[in-house]
C-alpha cells in the first residue's frame, strides 16, 4: 500500500523546488522530509529525485507525481463530503501550466467567476504554449494549456480555439527600417522581440515569408514588458490581437505591412481521473473559452 505522506513529501520538494522550502510547506524539518524521500525511494525501488539544484524528478518520480496529482484532486471531492478526513496536506491549489499570452488576455475573464464560486485557488505555472504539456508529463501540474493536440497516456485534450497573433511594431521602428516598404529578407537583419528561448512564433512568421535561419532579437519573458519594448521602438514581434487592440487603434503600434496573421491552436489537457472539480473546470472552459478565441 502506498504511504501518501511520502508522496506529499515528493510533491512538496518538486513544487517548492527544494528540500528546505518543501519541508517548510509541510511543517517539517529538512531532515524529516529527506527521510521521507529516502523511504519512498526504498519502497519504490529506485531514486525519485535527482540531487540537482533544484531537484528534478526521475522517470520513476514522474510516474509517482502523476499519480499523486490525480489522488490530490480526487481527495478534494472526498473531503468535501467528509470534512473530518482533512489532516496533513499541501494547500489545495490547482496547479496548471499555461502560456503567458493567455494569462495576459482571456484566462482571467473566463475562469474568474468559476474560481470565486467554488473557492478554488490556482497555482499557475507560466510556460510557452509549445511546451506546457511537458510539465504535465513530469507530474508537476494537474492540467495544462498548450498547442500540442496529442494527450498523454491517461489524459484527454480538448480544443478550445485559436489564439490570433499579429506582427506589429511602432511607427518609428517601421519608418526607421522600412520607409520604402517592408522587405521580408530584411526582417532578419533588424531586431525582433522574443518572449523566451522556447518561443517560436517569430520564427514561424519569418518562415511563412520565406525567411529561414537566425535573426536578431531581444529576449523578454514578460507579456507586458514585451509590448512595452515594441512601443519603445526596440523591435517587431508577434502579439495576441486582443492585447494590442488599444495600441493599434491609437496608432502607437502598427501591423507590419503585407504580413499575415498567425493562428495558434490551444488545447486544454487534463487527467481522465482528475475528479469532479477538474471535470467541472473542463466543461466551463469548453463553454466559455471559445468566446474569447478564434474558431
TrEMBL record:
Keyword Membrane: no
Domain HTH lysR-type, residue spans: 2-58
GO molecular function: DNA binding; DNA-binding transcription factor activity
Protein name: ArgP/LysG family DNA-binding transcriptional regulator
Tagged with keyword Ion transport: no
Protein keywords: DNA-binding, Transcription, Transcription regulation
Organism lineage string: Bacteria, Pseudomonadati, Pseudomonadota, Gammaproteobacteria, Pseudomonadales
Native organism: Pseudomonas mangrovi
InterPro entries, sorted: ArgP, LTTR, LysR_HTH_N, LysR_subst-bd, WH-like_DNA-bd_sf, WH_DNA-bd_sf
Family the UniProt entry places it in: Belongs to the LysR transcriptional regulatory family.
Amino acid at each position: 500500500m502506498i504511504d501518501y505522506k511520502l508522496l506529499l513529501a515528493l510533491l512538496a520538494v518538486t513544487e517548492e523546488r527544494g528540500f528546505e522550502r518543501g519541508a517548510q510547506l509541510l511543517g517539517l524539518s529538512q531532515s524529516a522530509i529527506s527521510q521521507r524521500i529516502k523511504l519512498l525511494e526504498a519502497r519504490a525501488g529506485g531514486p525519485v529525485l535527482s540531487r540537482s539544484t533544484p531537484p528534478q524528478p526521475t522517470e520513476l518520480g514522474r510516474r509517482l507525481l502523476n499519480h499523486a496529482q490525480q489522488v490530490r484532486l480526487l481527495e478534494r471531492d472526498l473531503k468535501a463530503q467528509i470534512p473530518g478526513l482533512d489532516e496533513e496536506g499541501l494547500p489545495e491549489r490547482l496547479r496548471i501550466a499555461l502560456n503567458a499570452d493567455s494569462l495576459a488576455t482571456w484566462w482571467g475573464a473566463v475562469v474568474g467567476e468559476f474560481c470565486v464560486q467554488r473557492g478554488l485557488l490556482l497555482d499557475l505555472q507560466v510556460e510557452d504554449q509549445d511546451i506546457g504539456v511537458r510539465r504535465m508529463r513530469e507530474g508537476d501540474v494537474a492540467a495544462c494549456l498548450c498547442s500540442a493536440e496529442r494527450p498523454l497516456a491517461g489524459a484527454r485534450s480538448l480544443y478550445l480555439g485559436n489564439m490570433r497573433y499579429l506582427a506589429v511594431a511602432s511607427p518609428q521602428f517601421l519608418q526607421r527600417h522600412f520607409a520604402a516598404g517592408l522587405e521580408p529578407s530584411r526582417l532578419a537583419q533588424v531586431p525582433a522581440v522574443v518572449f523566451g528561448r522556447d518561443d517560436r512564433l517569430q520564427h514561424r512568421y519569418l518562415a511563412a515569408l520565406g525567411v529561414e535561419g537566425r535573426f536578431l532579437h531581444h529576449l523578454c519573458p514578460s507579456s507586458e514588458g514585451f509590448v512595452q519594448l515594441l512601443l519603445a521602438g526596440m523591435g517587431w514581434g508577434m502579439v495576441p490581437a486582443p492585447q494590442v487592440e488599444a495600441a493599434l487603434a491609437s496608432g502607437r503600434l502598427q501591423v507590419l505591412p503585407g504580413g499575415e496573421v498567425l493562428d495558434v491552436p490551444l488545447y486544454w489537457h487534463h487527467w481522465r481521473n482528475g475528479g469532479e472539480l477538474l471535470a467541472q473546470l473542463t466543461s466551463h472552459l469548453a463553454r466559455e473559452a471559445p468566446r474569447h478565441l478564434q474558431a
